[in-house]
Amino acid sequence: MEAKERIRKAKAEGRTALTEAESKELLGRFGVPVVEEKVAATPEEAVAAAHAIGFPVVLKGLGAKLTHKTERGLVRLNLRDDGEVRRAALEVAASAGADLAGYLIQPMLAGRREFVAGLFHDAQFGPVVMFGLGGIFAEALNDVAFRIAPIDEREAGEMIDELRSRNLFGPFRGEKAAGRERLIKTLTGLSRVGLELPDVTEAGINPLLVGPDGQVTAVDALIILGERPAARAARPPVDPKAIARLFYPRSIAFVGASGTFTKWGYMLFCNVAAGGFKGPVYLVNARGGEIAGRPTYQSVGEIPGPVDLAVVTIPAAQIIDLIPQFKEKGIKNMLLITSGFAETGAEGRRREEELVRQARESGILILGPNTMGICNPHDALYCCGSSVLPKPGTTTLVSQSGNLGVQLLGFAEHEGIGIRAFGGSGNEAMITIEDYMEAFEVDELTRTVVLYLESVKDGRRFFEAARRVGQKKPVVMLKGGRTQAGNRAAASHTGALASDIRVFDAAVRQAGIVVAEQPMDLLDLSAAFSSLPLPNGKRVAVMTLGGGWGVVTADLCVENGLSIPDLSPELISRIDQILPPYWSRSNPIDLVGEFDAKTPMQVIEELVRWEGCDSVIHLGIVGRSSFLKQMICSIHKVDPTMDRKFLDAVPGALVELETQYTIHTVHLMEKYGKPILGVNLLPDENARTILEVEGSAYKGVSFLTPERAVKALARMNSYRQWREKSAKGRQ
User: Fold this and answer.
1) 731 in a domain, yes or no?
2) For residue 637, how many other CB atoms are within 10 A of its CB?
3) What is the domain range of residue 44?
4) pLDDT digits over 8-27, tens only?
5) Which residue, 500, 530, 560, sits at the end of a domain?
6) What is the pTM of this model?
7) Which residues have CB under 8 Å from 549's CB, separation 6+?
8) For residues 700 and 527, what is the distance between their CA atoms, to the nearest angstrom?
9) Whether residue 278 is found in the same domain as residue 388
10) Is the dihedral of CA 191, 469, 423, 708 positive or negative?
């Protein structure tokens, strides 16, 4: 019987599950390697089936309601003759009572390695395939991998390799390696079930047994039938061109403008004006008069010129009244700063929904509410709740936390990281993170995407858009709400429900998103991705001014999935011509305290051109000026004979040498296409993560600690691997 017909018949009978035999028959049609078995109606038929299969056998009670057979004592193992089978059948019949429809006879399979595989439907992402360690330690170890369906053979293989217990798939205590092909067929088969059979809400295989010969067999299975949760009403997608227009207004009206220092209507206006916005700026306040020496209009209708963007800060209850005024004035874009909407509960949610309904009918696009604002340095637009003026660049930042977003903007400004645009997405009443993702895909100025997320409105759309974007440019994300407490906070903060974090994490990895662990990681990764070429492999050469730092960095590289290759004899011979004879002749390369300005330039060039490495980390070459400043302070105190003019000139000269060194590394990246990352010797109040080099697509990048440099490089390598695998999968 065809799978769909069997399911239709079972549902017509009022059943919510297939029997074990039906479940395995269906899974077998999708390529899952199921155990050989026979169905028997009576004890005598069970004996005959046992003879056909061959002793020893397993006998199980069979019935539509018998979904938890072990708990009810309906499984008998290792039956070796007719008498044992007959007695087991009678005992199972007595235990099952009227629920018994027959018996299932299987061979008694041996195997010490048990796994579990399954399929379920996630409210956000749809069908999800699961694979993990089974047996008695399954719940205790919770060693499980997830993927959003559909999955191909490559992704199924990644699920297998992702388990902490993956060593069990190799030869194990005299048993052969598990049949990888059959494992992959199981997972891809479950994926197909999830996509092709919408009436299947859940499927479980437990155990998926690996025998001594390596054969993989689904010994027990269960398929649950029903109606999948209805998808939330899809929000109309926002055209990326419409989002672009909102970030490029030709004129701005501040509705709720104020002359009070602490009010949003004052801060935002001041920041926009101080940032150099080139278009007309209009102030609107019902009282009229003047603010900051400028005329103030009592309504938008009084404004003499056209308005592209209205920045709204009046109380939530009054905002619905603005819609007809905006429609009449021809205002198409609203940046809604005001809070008091869905994030506050049911009443606020109703207010937000009605506002969106009327705005949509009037052709008005709303960003927010409950947002900290936006900025577009390429258009001198700095409309945020904080006076930050990052320079134009290629990193686009969208944050579901306004405070965190503007803090990151401030860090970016300080570290010299150029910003393409910033948006505090707020409640995402109309423009959602999914809309932003689709805009990133087509925006040519965006080279790196940085996200702070707490939840998504449409998980499947987000997943698919992120995967498309990631094939063109890196997406770096920090996820808030990873713990139970964080999830509660995220739900109240954004007014959206968060999906199971394990499924979300799986979707993120599958889509190629680069995951940050803390806020500063976002900027480190942004600096690296926007300034350096991607590494072509995981081999790292390390050059250090001190041996200990090199050892620490080598350890960090290995711990983060990178490798430290041995130096080739040819490379050692070339560096012998540069360093003293007592240098280590190993990777990491210790410059043995050499302060000659030419030495690090020569050594790093030899490393970059070496075919045995894919990237270079240098430590202590940049940042020596801070060390010298401290030394000069000591000299001033103890040696009055030292030439003061000479001492005072030394730090500046060294800074110039370090700048020339960094420019040299940028030129090396242009020539050889390998990333070069630095680590400062000491922190300096004037130090910046990024040093731009005129005319170059690459930039000098230097971090304050080895772990930050290594983590950034490791994430770049992982992203490169994902993109290569993804490209192969599309071929």
Assistant:
1) no
2) 8
3) 36-108
4) 999 999 999 999 999 999 99
5) 530
6) 0.88
7) 619, 620, 679, 706
8) 10
9) yes
10) positive
